[in-house]
Amino acid sequence: VGVWVARPDKPPLPGGVMREDKIAAIGIRIRRWVTFHGIAINVEPDLTHYAGIVPCGIEGHGVTSLVDLGLPVTMDDLDLALKRNFSRFFGPVE
Asked: Distance between CA atoms of 70 and 16, rounded to whole angstroms?
């Protein structure tokens, strides 16, 4: 599942549709009663590496990051925020 953010700072798509860029992906799989899960969040990647990628096969949309959106976040900041919010829902994290 892609996580998208609206980009009013970029030109709209044909028909005046607001552009959205992918910032994260969340995946869950169940196989033989075993669950697999993962999350990927773009903090500060080199976005030029995504130039030829059509995220989730949706034409006209791009890829962005927290830093590209003007949020000066580090991996440590993100790690702390994820731990705090995870703990709120699932209990303490060591």
From this structure: 24
User: For 19-59, how does the pLDDT look when each residue is reduced to its tens digit (9 = 90+)?
Assistant: 899 999 999 999 999 999 999 999 999 999 988 888 888 88
| pTM listed for this prediction | 0.76
d(CA 22, CA 24): 6
57: tokens are: 């096969």
Mean pLDDT of the chain: 89
Structural domain that includes position 71: 2-90
| Active site amino acids | 56
CATH of the domain at 66: 3.30.930.10
Q: Which amino acid is at 61?
A: H
Q: Which residues are CB-neighbours of 14 under 8 A, at least 6 positions away?
A: 60
Residue bearing tokens 């949706």: 58
What is the signed CA dihedral for 8, 9, 10, 14, rounded to 10 degrees? 30
